[in-house]
Amino acid sequence: FQAASFPSMLAPRSAYAKRDACSVSRALSRSGHGPTNPKFAPIFIRVLIDAVTDETSPMLSIALAEYCEAIIAISPSRWPVRKLLNQFGRYYAAYMLIHNYYGWLGDDPALPTLSRLKRLSSLSPRHTTHFVGVLKTAGFVTSEPVAVDRRQTLLRPEPVLVEEIGRSILAFLAAHDRIAGTAHAAFLSGSVERIGAIIHLSARQILAGGTVISPFPTIAAMANYDCGYPVLGALMAAHYASEARRPVPLLTLEPLAERFQVSKSHVGNVFSYLSSVGLIDAGRGVRPALVEEFERWSVAEMNHYALLAARLTSDHGACGALNA
Question: pTM score, two decimals?
Answer without folding.
Answer: 0.82
